[in-house]
Design a protein that fits this description.
Layout (H helix, E strand, L loop, with lengths): L1 H14 L5 H11 L7 H21 L2 H4 L4 H28 L5 H19 L12 H11 L9 H11 L4 H27 L7 H33 L2 H15 L2
Length: 254
Amino acid sequence: MIEIIILSVVQGITEFIPVSSTLHLLIFSKFLNDYQINLLILSSMHLGSLLAVSLFFLIDSKLEINKISYLRLMQFIFVGTLPIFVAGFFFYDFVDRNMSINFLVVTSIFLFGILLFVSDKYSENKKDFNNLNFFDLFLIGIFQCFALIPGTSRSAATIIPSRFLKINRETSIIISALLSFPTIVGAFVYSLFVNIDVNNINYSIITQDIFLSILFSFIASYFGLKLFYKYSSLKGFGAFAAYRILLAIFLIFN
């Protein structure tokens, strides 16, 4: 039980910042006697993050979201998430097999750290929600598919192309959070479908684990996203890029 709580907090804190929540779960799992976390529990943690981002939009970024109509917002979300839905369907087994710290994961954390730094350092802050178009969201959606590689970070995979497209930091963070909605829901539902054998399951244990993972991820996700939004809207993403690069170097020599 304590492992689920610790890992849910770790996942929540790192879910919306561009450092890869999956990688941090793998790292902390090793400190917890190689505790094995399956995609069902991981998806439950993401569901807690979904509830947190819903609260965030209601309280913390309502003014920014209200710049565009509800219909336009839904269209943006659809266009931005369609690519990863298609890719996720075909590469689900690849994701499941790579839930470990390996060369691919370390390479991903390093390279996307470089891309995060470059995209933020040399981008202009020209666009907000009023200037976005469907092609922008489609390109962001295509790039988001790289998030299927553990270590990439779904947040990084959406913020990086947003900054290259000259979208300002505040809007980039909100786009990343918005695109998490259908991605998280889809991952949770599909994980339930492929992981649960209804004829061979201890419902009391699985229900308890899911409840704890959702609850603690929700709390950690909300405060993590709130602080990330306030900090990075003003200071940028350089600190997170540096952290990714240093983490990759640490993992290479350990």
